[in-house]
Amino acid sequence: MARKKIIAGNWKMNMTPSQTVELINTLKPLVATEDADVVFCVPAIDIIPALEASKGSNIEIGAENMYYEEKGAYTGEIAPDMLTDVGVKYVIIGHSERREYFAETNETVNKKVLKAFEHGITPIVCCGETLTQREQGVTMDFIRQQVKIAFLGVTAEQAKTAVIAYEPIWAIGTGKTATTEQAQEVCCGIRKCIAEIYDEATAEAIRIQYGGSVNDKTAPELFAQPDIDGGLVGGAALKPDFGKIVNWK
Ligand SMILES: O=C[C@H](O)COP(=O)(O)O
């Protein structure tokens, strides 16, 4: 069974609501395709204008984060119901920037992943090693731990619909893309890890993205790899070139 590619933009903390509308109007015709799922993960305040602006297009809107409680005294957080109420289908969980600057751990990532599934939101679960870990030769050990904890308590049926984003931290926003071989090797390792946790059918179904300085030049070779099912794109998702990344073939 061929997996449909999923190409997502992670806008991070960029774009005001009015800039959001402008950017989506520019990108809408450029990202039109039936070959891939196209997702724009945007800051919370941009979600509603993004949904409005993308109406009638193939663009799905995702959130960049979500809390794992239903509601209550959690100042500044966004509840899953708030996302589903307006039509959000995806949420990025455990991005390395959330782990580094906002103290997210494998355990909070797991709670958020479970909560996302409970609400029918597809989590894009991020993992990835630091440069030191790569140099120490522990890349796969580290990532396997991240993935195993993130998926604790997740059923095989749920896992089949999940998205994992492999993002080597040293390649994020640095202009240093992992080589195609490095990216394929880790994505293949993640798929094997999913097969160990669940079974071959789940491993075959789950979609694994690569992220880290993806651009329109590197995307075609990366996305042609057998275990790379698309990308999670930061900087290049804010430019018209994102259209070329989406239509990489
Ligand atoms: O989530 C996206 C990644 O952090 C990649 O960002 P980048 O494409 O700007 O390196």
Automatic annotation (TrEMBL):
<dbReference type="GO" id="GO:0006094">
    <property type="term" value="P:gluconeogenesis"/>
</dbReference>
<comment type="subunit">
    <text>Homodimer.</text>
</comment>
<keyword id="KW-0413">Isomerase</keyword>
<comment type="function">
    <text>Involved in the gluconeogenesis. Catalyzes stereospecifically the conversion of dihydroxyacetone phosphate (DHAP) to D-glyceraldehyde-3-phosphate (G3P).</text>
</comment>
<dbReference type="GO" id="GO:0004807">
    <property type="term" value="F:triose-phosphate isomerase activity"/>
</dbReference>
<dbReference type="InterPro" id="IPR013785">
    <property type="entry name" value="Aldolase_TIM"/>
</dbReference>
<feature type="binding site">
    <location>
        <position position="173"/>
    </location>
    <ligand>
        <name>substrate</name>
    </ligand>
</feature>
<keyword id="KW-0312">Gluconeogenesis</keyword>
<feature type="active site" description="Proton acceptor">
    <location>
        <position position="167"/>
    </location>
</feature>
<keyword id="KW-0963">Cytoplasm</keyword>
<feature type="binding site">
    <location>
        <begin position="234"/>
        <end position="235"/>
    </location>
    <ligand>
        <name>substrate</name>
    </ligand>
</feature>
<dbReference type="GO" id="GO:0019563">
    <property type="term" value="P:glycerol catabolic process"/>
</dbReference>
<dbReference type="GO" id="GO:0006096">
    <property type="term" value="P:glycolytic process"/>
</dbReference>
<comment type="pathway">
    <text>Carbohydrate biosynthesis; gluconeogenesis.</text>
</comment>
<feature type="binding site">
    <location>
        <position position="213"/>
    </location>
    <ligand>
        <name>substrate</name>
    </ligand>
</feature>
<feature type="active site" description="Electrophile">
    <location>
        <position position="95"/>
    </location>
</feature>
<dbReference type="GO" id="GO:0005829">
    <property type="term" value="C:cytosol"/>
</dbReference>
<comment type="pathway">
    <text>Carbohydrate degradation; glycolysis; D-glyceraldehyde 3-phosphate from glycerone phosphate: step 1/1.</text>
</comment>
<comment type="similarity">
    <text>Belongs to the triosephosphate isomerase family.</text>
</comment>
<feature type="binding site">
    <location>
        <begin position="10"/>
        <end position="12"/>
    </location>
    <ligand>
        <name>substrate</name>
    </ligand>
</feature>
<protein>
    <recommendedName>
        <fullName>Triosephosphate isomerase</fullName>
        <ecNumber>5.3.1.1</ecNumber>
    </recommendedName>
</protein>
<dbReference type="InterPro" id="IPR020861">
    <property type="entry name" value="Triosephosphate_isomerase_AS"/>
</dbReference>
<dbReference type="GO" id="GO:0046166">
    <property type="term" value="P:glyceraldehyde-3-phosphate biosynthetic process"/>
</dbReference>
<dbReference type="InterPro" id="IPR035990">
    <property type="entry name" value="TIM_sf"/>
</dbReference>
<keyword id="KW-0324">Glycolysis</keyword>
<dbReference type="InterPro" id="IPR000652">
    <property type="entry name" value="Triosephosphate_isomerase"/>
</dbReference>
<dbReference type="Pfam" id="PF00121">
    <property type="entry name" value="TIM"/>
</dbReference>
<dbReference type="InterPro" id="IPR022896">
    <property type="entry name" value="TrioseP_Isoase_bac/euk"/>
</dbReference>
